[in-house]
Amino acid sequence: MVRELTPPVHWRGRHWAVTGYGIEALDGLYHVPASDLWPEGAPPPEWIVALRRRYGTDCDDLDEAVRVARIVFAPEAGTP
User: Fold this and answer.
1) Alpha helix (H) residue ranges in the chain
2) Domain tally, the chain
3) What is the distance between the alpha carbons of residues 17 and 31, in angstroms, rounded to a whole number?
4) Does a structural domain hold residue 60?
5) C-alpha closest to that of 26 among 39, 7, 12, 38
6) 4-48: per-residue pLDDT in tens?
7) Which residue segment(s) compose the domain that 23 sits in?
8) Residue 79: what pLDDT?
9) Does 26 map to a domain?
10) pLDDT-based confidence at 78, cuts 50/70/90?
């Protein structure tokens, strides 16, 4: 299944992309809203742990998507 990525596409890896929605799998099977990103250094949520264990997940690419998404969706300094 292939679906269009949500614009704008901020970063595109081998299997994952950072988009205006959050993180999306290029095959269209997974899409994670930016609001589900967790702070760096905090324990990862169960959904990411399960996704990393899923056969075929490119964990390096997913980790890079999370890293880029944290930058893209970081709250601006001084914003509540």
Assistant:
1) 46-53, 59-72
2) 1
3) 9
4) yes
5) 12
6) 899 999 999 999 999 999 999 999 999 999 999 998 899 999 999
7) 9-72
8) 45
9) yes
10) very low
Confirm whether 78 is domain-assigned: no
Give the β-pairing of 31-33 and 22-25. Answer: antiparallel
What pTM does this model have?
A: 0.87
Mean residue pLDDT across the chain: 90
The alpha carbon of residue 43 and the mean position of all alpha carbons in its chain are separated, in whole angstroms, by 16
1 part of a folded domain: no
DSSP letter (8 states) at residue 39: -
Would you state the structure tokens that stand for residue 39, as one six-digit string? Answer: 């702070």
Question: Cβ(16)–Cβ(58) under 8 Å?
Answer: yes
Torsion (CA) 23, 61, 67, 45 in degrees, nearest 10: 70
Q: Which of 61, 50, 53 is nearest to 27 (CA)?
A: 61
